[in-house]
Amino acid sequence: MVKKLLKKGRYKRIVISAIVFFTLLLLNLSDAFAENTVTYVELPVKKVSQTYSNWCWAAGSESILYYCKNYLGFGEEATQWDIVKYIYGSYVNKPASLYDIQRALSYYGVGSSRMIPVRAG
Which of 9, 61, 76, 110 sees the fewest Cβ atoms within 10 Å? Predict the structure, then answer.
């Protein structure tokens, strides 16, 4: 009687293990054949190298302003030199806070809360 129970218990474990194995195998195979639904979009963003070591924020801001002006139709273009001069009053090699970046972008017509409708497709 005990031998029969052990065999049944072992049999159940083997069956359950096989079911789990084949389920996982089928799930992995279905992923391999699934249609790719990810869409990648490359934005025509101007690549700007920072002039000084602490001007990454100004170079990034220049790139944002260029994109907004030329592809979204609002804001003004400005160079990182213009942006640093606006924030600090001179061309100092200093980092900027998030507030400073928002202030600079807003000065050139790109507010941080502006909503732009995007068409799907």
Answer: 9
Domain ranges of the chain: 1-37, 56-107
pLDDT tens across 90-103, in order? 999 999 999 999 99
Burial of 33 (0-12, 13-18, 19+ CB in 10 A): exposed
**For 47, what's the count of Cα atoms within 13 Å in the CB-facing half-sphere?**
1
DSSP annotation of 109:
T
Residues 6+ apart with CB under 8 A from 80: 48, 50, 51, 55, 58, 59, 61, 62
With a CB cutoff of 8 Å and minimum separation 6, the contacts of 116 are: 72
pLDDT per position as a tens digit, 43-90: 888 999 999 999 999 999 999 999 999 988 999 999 999 999 999 999
- The letter for the amino acid at 115 is M
